# Entry
Amino acid sequence: MNETSLPEEIHTNLEALLNKKYAIFLDKRIFSISSSLTDAEIRVCVTLHDDKHSFHYPVEARINPDPEEMTEQQTAVFLIDYIDLYFEQYFEEGEELLLPIAWAKHHYEAVEFELRGQIQNKYLEEQADKLLENQLH
# Structure
């Protein structure tokens, strides 16, 4: 099974668009995008985070590709577009609209896919891990 991702230039351009579009809401946070494209599954992750990752909100989408409908790259961009729509609602509702932690089915433009997200404090988790590691030694 071959695994690729969207070209880095696409990631960079889409990140720049999201960061510009939502600049008023970001408050020292930025968007980053990753993707994984295989014959069996296409996954994208749009993460809203600050520089320390004390606010880390990855929104992930996955879908089984249908080459008759869209190419792998088109499908990945489609999923990123949907996540963009989610973040639009998220910011409009004062960051109260949260996704389920477990994968949940969604439909958009007659396409079915799964989505999940969870706000994390990666910085605090890393500090806790270091503290536990020090106590074990």
